[in-house]
Amino acid sequence: MTTIDEDHTRPEGVDDLTVEALGNISEALEAIEIARGHLYTFHRLSGTADFTLGKGVDQLREAGHTELADRFERELVGRNVLEGRWTFQIMEEYDDGYYATFKELDRLAREQLVAGKRHLYEAELKEARRTAGRGGHEAAPDAED
Prior knowledge:
Blueprint: H1 16-62, H2 66-75, H3 87-114, H4 120-129
Helix pairs in contact: 1-2, 1-3
């Protein structure tokens, strides 16, 4: 079997189940990366909403709706989105806790089991599905096979 490159070649003695397990952990980490992106989207949209709300409240006040503007200002502008937290605090807690732990354990598992190599499952899947010698199916960018 041709391989993509040494970085994506299974170390001697590593069994299929270990490669599959690491593939599933990698897939889970990809989902966590997407979830983290959505949290950052939530962070950005919440901040944008707060500033846009502030503009609307100022306009209510200018239009003479002082009592309603004051209520918005007191109860909503600059309010915590969760108890005691603005979104940046949520992001920091997530990044420093769950996300950092996930990244560290993924790295640790790869180091202990496959010499730190990444995407072995995917590399082997690519090799099994590509047509060797066919344009667009090369093992790697400069491979001749």
